[in-house]
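Quick note —
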Amino acid sequence: MPHFQTWEEFSRAAEKLYLADPMKVRVVLKYRHCDGNLCIKVTDDAVCLQYKTDQAQDVKKMEKLHGKLMRLMVSKESHSAAMETD
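Predicted structure written out below.
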Protein backbone atom coordinates (compact mmCIF):
# COMPACT_ATOMS: atom_id res chain seq x y z
CA MET A 1 0.00 0.00 0.00
CA PRO A 2 2.12 2.90 -1.22
CA HIS A 3 1.70 6.30 0.39
CA PHE A 4 2.51 8.96 -2.18
CA GLN A 5 4.52 12.00 -1.11
CA THR A 6 3.48 14.30 -3.97
CA TRP A 7 -0.02 15.03 -5.19
CA GLU A 8 0.94 14.94 -8.87
CA GLU A 9 2.26 11.38 -8.66
CA PHE A 10 -0.81 10.24 -6.77
CA SER A 11 -3.33 11.83 -9.15
CA ARG A 12 -1.61 10.35 -12.23
CA ALA A 13 -1.47 6.89 -10.64
CA ALA A 14 -5.12 7.11 -9.54
CA GLU A 15 -6.32 8.08 -13.03
CA LYS A 16 -4.26 5.31 -14.60
CA LEU A 17 -5.69 2.78 -12.12
CA TYR A 18 -9.23 3.92 -12.88
CA LEU A 19 -8.74 3.73 -16.65
CA ALA A 20 -7.29 0.21 -16.38
CA ASP A 21 -10.56 -1.22 -15.01
CA PRO A 22 -13.31 1.32 -14.23
CA MET A 23 -15.76 -1.28 -12.87
CA LYS A 24 -13.46 -2.38 -10.02
CA VAL A 25 -12.05 0.93 -8.78
CA ARG A 26 -13.43 2.70 -5.72
CA VAL A 27 -12.45 5.92 -3.99
CA VAL A 28 -12.56 6.53 -0.23
CA LEU A 29 -12.09 9.90 1.49
CA LYS A 30 -11.50 9.87 5.24
CA TYR A 31 -11.11 12.85 7.56
CA ARG A 32 -9.87 12.53 11.15
CA HIS A 33 -10.71 15.67 13.07
CA CYS A 34 -8.54 14.80 16.08
CA ASP A 35 -5.44 14.62 13.83
CA GLY A 36 -6.56 17.13 11.23
CA ASN A 37 -5.66 14.61 8.51
CA LEU A 38 -7.49 13.99 5.25
CA CYS A 39 -6.74 10.72 3.48
CA ILE A 40 -7.81 9.64 -0.01
CA LYS A 41 -7.54 6.01 -1.02
CA VAL A 42 -8.07 4.63 -4.53
CA THR A 43 -8.16 0.86 -4.87
CA ASP A 44 -9.19 -1.96 -7.16
CA ASP A 45 -8.53 -4.66 -4.52
CA ALA A 46 -5.23 -5.62 -6.19
CA VAL A 47 -3.57 -2.19 -5.96
CA CYS A 48 -4.18 0.38 -3.23
CA LEU A 49 -2.99 3.98 -3.60
CA GLN A 50 -3.06 6.42 -0.67
CA TYR A 51 -2.34 10.09 -0.13
CA LYS A 52 -2.55 11.72 3.28
CA THR A 53 -2.36 15.42 4.07
CA ASP A 54 -2.99 17.96 6.79
CA GLN A 55 -2.78 20.97 4.46
CA ALA A 56 -5.97 22.89 3.69
CA GLN A 57 -4.93 23.69 0.10
CA ASP A 58 -4.80 19.96 -0.74
CA VAL A 59 -8.54 19.64 -0.07
CA LYS A 60 -9.28 21.55 -3.28
CA LYS A 61 -6.93 19.26 -5.25
CA MET A 62 -8.68 16.18 -3.85
CA GLU A 63 -12.05 17.66 -4.72
CA LYS A 64 -10.91 18.33 -8.28
CA LEU A 65 -9.61 14.75 -8.75
CA HIS A 66 -12.77 13.30 -7.25
CA GLY A 67 -14.90 15.39 -9.64
CA LYS A 68 -12.79 14.31 -12.60
CA LEU A 69 -13.21 10.64 -11.71
CA MET A 70 -16.96 11.13 -11.25
CA ARG A 71 -17.23 12.76 -14.70
CA LEU A 72 -15.41 9.77 -16.21
CA MET A 73 -17.78 7.39 -14.44
CA VAL A 74 -20.91 8.97 -15.90
CA SER A 75 -19.61 9.79 -19.38
CA LYS A 76 -20.89 7.81 -22.33
CA GLU A 77 -17.77 8.26 -24.46
CA SER A 78 -14.73 6.02 -24.19
CA HIS A 79 -12.59 6.64 -21.14
CA SER A 80 -9.30 6.89 -23.05
CA ALA A 81 -10.66 9.66 -25.30
CA ALA A 82 -11.90 11.60 -22.27
CA MET A 83 -8.49 11.54 -20.59
CA GLU A 84 -6.73 12.76 -23.75
CA THR A 85 -8.83 15.94 -23.81
CA ASP A 86 -8.01 16.91 -20.19
